[in-house]
Amino acid sequence: MRILSLAPTSFFNDYGCHVRIYEEARALQNAGHHVTVLTYFKGENVPDLEIIRTRPTPWHSHYEVGSSRHKFAFDALLSIRLLRVLASRPFDVIHAHLHEGALIASLIAKPWNIPVVFDFQGSLTDEMTQHRFIRAGTLPHRFFSRFEHVINHLPNAILTSTRNASEVLRRTLRAGDTRIIEPLPDGVDVQTVRPNVLTALERAHLRAQFGITGDEFVIGFLGLLAEHQGIQCLIDAAACLKAQGRHVRWLVMGYPGAHHWRAQADAAGVGQEIVFPGRVPYARMPHMLALSDIAVAPKLSLTEGSGKILNYMAMALPTIAFDTPAQREILGALGVYAPRGDSQALAKGVAELMDQPARRQALGAQLRRAAVQYHGWDRAVPTMVGVYEAARARRVAPHTRAQAHAPAHAHAPARRDVGDKTGL
Predict the structure, then answer these.
(1) Smaller CB count within 10 Å for the chain: N or C?
(2) What is the pLDDT of residues 233-258, one digit of tens each?
(3) Residues 146, 302, 137, CA angle at the centre, nearest 5°?
């Protein structure tokens, strides 16, 4: 199958959304399909993946992570490039990422009658609010909320990064709408992301580069350093543990804004406890995570997925997470939870795991086993292909919409919660 992956972002960069795009494409190509990625002008090329880029805007050659007013111009250039690509070569389906991708593909692909599958990774309005591009309750917030609702009704099918998102979307569809909506939870490359990627000597040497001694207890985080990722909660938890006399080191990896968060840590009195290494290349991610004893996932967003947790699981890292539907969906009974936004509870979860080495070891082994058995990206291919085929059938015979939903389930293996899988 010839698949056009439409990515209205600066692909590839080292954070969750881009990792999902990359791993989906790689899994599809490993299964014998051909994937072409159409994306913005800026970004890193990755091996064995065809990437087509737009031209840069003459007045702006830099792109910020997250919402930006410059994205309107970038999306216009992406639309023009998409027209040219579709006019020059055939595709069986467009796999559109993010709301901008779903809108552009749904409107421009109509003359070619190519089905569009929308990869829904979270609410557009929620993301814009979290990045402070708009404020909740304002006229722009209401406008974009309505705009998002319209976009959700445009594509032939929708893949969601969480089951919770698929349930929410089904509730918001118009009565009688039989649109294909299928959960496609994030996966992980368990062959690359694994424990023991470093020898004990290599681990000690790499820790020393960040001023961490071999016997210090380390809590790891890897992801975007953004408000909605709960970085301030993490800093507050570090201050709480320090006030209790706990000696803990924090390895907070990611970008952008490391300088800002370092200043926040200094203001909270934990500048010496928290290390901000900055951006971590995707290929180095397992090595950096291997420096931690446990991991934290203090994400505050209620609509986005939390793919970083799968990396923690594959590395056999016991994980403390804020209790949100997306994070509980992944960790199930194997997670250690704190109420959303509660820094003291987050600190308490860390302290409990510090005091229970046997529990840490058991949780780590169970998490690794669950990652291997249920979250490899190869398991996502039947779901994606099943939805593609159902969307194509719906395009060919639109009067059979009620029957078009069935093939997606017929091709997708049943997926259960982690707690069910492990018997816990």
Answers:
(1) C
(2) 999 999 999 999 999 999 999 998 99
(3) 40
Q: State the Cα–Cα distance between residues 150 and 288, nearest whole angstrom.
A: 41
Q: Contact 237/204 with Cβ under 8 angstroms?
A: no
Q: What is the pLDDT of residues 84-119, one digit of tens each?
A: 999 999 999 999 999 999 999 999 999 999 999 999
User: Which residues, at least 6 apart from 284, have a Cβ–Cβ distance to it below 8 Å?
Assistant: none
Of 33, 9, 20, nearest to 389 by C-alpha is 33
- Tokens 């190519």 sit at which residue? 114
Predicted local confidence at residue 419, as pLDDT: 37
Measured between alpha carbons, how far is 343 from 366 in angstroms, rounded to an integer? 26
Token representation of residue 33 = 């399909």
Token pair in block for residue 87: 């006019």
CA atoms within 13 A on the CB side of 25: 28
CB atoms within 10 A of CB 36: 17
Please state, in angstroms and rounded to a whole number, the distance separating the CA atoms of residues 408 and 160. Answer: 13
One DSSP character per residue, 150-190 reads: HHHTSSSEEEESSHHHHHHHHHHSPTT---EEEE----B-T
Rg from Cα positions in the chain = 22
With a cut of 70, which residues of the chain have pLDDT below it?
59-69, 127-128, 130-132, 396-424
Q: Which residues contact 241 (CB under 8 A, 6 or more apart)?
A: 248, 347, 350, 351
Strands (E), 224-293: 249-253, 274-278
SS3 readout for 83-131: HHHHHHCCCCEEEEEHHHHHHHHHHHCHHHCCCEEEEECCCHHHHHHHC
Contact 336, 327 (CB under 8 A): no
Question: Closest Cα to residue 183, out of 8, 371, 329, 370?
Answer: 329
